[in-house]
Amino acid sequence: MQNRFRFFTAPVKLVFRSRPQTKKGCRHRSTSYNDNVAKGFLSVLVFCLCVTNAHAGVAVSPKPYVLGSVAGFPITNGMIYTWVISLAIILIVRALIRKPRLIPTKGQTVAETVIEGIYNLLTPIVGKRVAKQAFPILIGFFVYILMQNWSGLLPGVGTIGTFKEGHFTYFFRPSNADLNATLALAIVSMAVWAWLVLKNEGFVGAVKHIFGNKADRSELSFGIYALLFFVFLSVGFIECISILFRLVSLSFRLYGNVFGGENLINNIMALAPWTKYLLPVPFYFLEILIGVVQALVFTLLVAVYIGSICNHGEEEATEGTLKV
Amino acid sequence: MIGCLLEISGNSGGNAVTRLAETFGVQTELLIAQIVNFCLVTYLLYRFAVKPTLKTVEARQKKIEEGLRFAEEMKAKQASAERERLEVLKKAQADAQALLANTKAEGERYLAEQKKAAEEKVLQLTEQARHAMEGERSAMLKEAKGEIVTLTVETTERLLSGILTDEMRAKLNEQAAALLAQSKDEHGTQA
After folding, report:
1. Cα–Cα distance between A238 and A152 in angstroms, integer?
2. A256 contacts in chain B (CB < 8 Å)
3. What SS3 class is residue A36?
4. Which of A86, A315, B69, B97 keeps 20 to 30 A from A33, CA to CA?
């Protein structure tokens, strides 16, 4: 009896089980633990296939459903799922790290690897000095977007809900398949960008950077150098437009990818009655990959935007020198 | 989504941004809620996960650096101690050699002194013994001579008592006395 449900219970066990016992001083995971991880992962996929997309074939709505309101504030399915996943992020990360120790636990090792990896990736882009200021928000972007992207693959998303006037209204919608969420992330990222630019370069410095003549005066004649002022001024205006459009590009890129992924899986399942069982598996893996890539792209783009003005390249980025 | 965008772009009526917002369900309240939500999650994530982790990583790096530095210091100290030990050992060996040589020289000198003193003592004793022997010999000779003279005199006296007259006897005694006195003088001079 217990075996029949192991595919469903394995992921639960994986999350809540006690840490595997290892010999003192031995850092290797036991084979059974690795097996359980693999089983848990596969069981999540199978469970997703069995439970999700009861309404395959119906196109995913481009906007979240308003399920109700509290004091005039609309509560959407995207909002509810955002809260659920936000809580899950905090709990999972806290469970991984607990109280950090000098000799790390397995969970802490995972968290440290991610944090150090992101830090070492971003430091050369934004510059060592600005990295300390930008890192908290950038790591927040990465973890938040990654978890929200992957959360769209969990069972129950788009399947648990009610019928209202013959229309199925589901309770859980992936956060990044809601333009409100991706636009919010873009707004925060641009606000942080503006704050970091003004803090590190100042208003005049930023204006100089955008509109200023970047040519070397010693290598050019005065005529050409003066002419370049107009060229750089024009380029500055174009850059201003591109800066404003970052809000659109950041938000729609993420939204489009996640929303597209939802539609893709939905439609794959609706191809034929039998396609919902195995055919979507490769697309689930694809969505897992896209989740990571999009989280990384968003984070890196914000880092590049910050670094393009704040990083002067005078500092050598040193790997492995994390400072709080 | 593309259909939505085409519909929005193709629709001449109304503001495109407003229609876009309507199509994708963008609402100010939801936008603010999402911003607040993200900021809250990021703050909590940084405050309770990233920051402590970074501190731990930093502390670990510091500890590792200290450990490596300590190991280097210990290595240097060990090398220094080894060098000092070898120097002390070398010095001790040199001192021991010098002491040994000194002791050997002292011993030889002492031996030579003792030998010389013993030889002197032997010579002195030999001389003393020789003197003593000579004294005893001369005393014996003197005694023997005295006895021989006495015996000779007594024998002569006994032999001559019947033959010699008183006059001859007196003359003989005088001659004998003179001889004795002479011999006594010679003996005294020799002594």
Report:
1. 37
2. 1
3. helix
4. A86
